[in-house]
UniProtKB/TrEMBL annotation:
Pfam families: ACT_AHAS_ss, ALS_ss_C. Residues 30-105 form the ACT domain. One of its GO terms (biological process) is isoleucine biosynthetic process. CDD domains: ACT_AHAS. It comes from Halocynthiibacter halioticoli. Dimer of large and small chains. This is Acetolactate synthase small subunit.
Length: 188
């Protein structure tokens, strides 16, 4: 009886290997759900994620239609393509959920986040923080002799970059809204 030996690190490609090579790739997706604006809906949506061990990276909720009492929940989550499909299917089965859109795969979308940054600085650090805020188009919304609060909107990456630059200059505190997103074009 002969044994087949495969060297470590070598890959074998077989016509019988039907596994998807991208199956284990974790991707970030932005999901937009239109739901009834009623008590308990957000808890049910969050419960779906926590009950199955899915992570929520960002979550925003607001009423978007007062007449029909509808809210929009925007969720940024990550997982393999199979996990993302499971999340979308399970969200669609929750009764007060009217629509689930995966903005990541449905085409171009616009994503923005609002952040507030408190920077405590004096002297050169104070001047540098103002210079960087100007470059990033951040607005000063509060100022004392020893600190600023900057307001900025932009992509999550832009906000992360600004925070990274402000840390050595005296970043004390940050508040972020989470991602708000809409698909581009005339369709819903």
């Amino acid at each position: 009886m002969s044994a087949l030996k495969i060297k470590k690190g070598s890959s074998s490609h077989s016509a019988y290997d039907l596994r998807d090579p991208n199956a284990d790739v974790v991707e970030s997706h932005t999901l937009a759900c239109v739901v009834d604006n009623e008590a308990g809906v957000l808890a049910r949506v969050i419960g779906l994620f926590s009950g199955r061990g899915y992570n929520i990276e960002s979550l925003t909720v607001a009423e978007v239609n007062h007449e029909f009492h509808r809210s929009r929940i925007t969720i940024v989550t990550s997982g393999t393509p199979q996990v993302i499909e499971q999340i979308k299917a399970q969200l669609g089965r929750i009764v007060p959920v009217h629509r689930v859109h995966d903005l990541t795969v449905e085409g171009a979308s616009v994503e923005r986040e609002l952040a507030l940054f408190k920077v405590a600085a004096t002297g050169e650090q104070r001047v540098e923080s103002l210079r960087l805020a100007d470059i990033f188009r951040a607005n000063v919304v509060d100022s004392t002799l020893n600190s600023f609060i900057f307001e900025m909107t932009g992509t999550s990456e832009k906000i992360d970059a600004f925070a990274d630059l402000m840390r050595p200059l005296g970043l004390v505190e940050t508040a972020r809204t989470g991602v708000a997103a809409l698909g581009r074009g005339p369709e819903k």
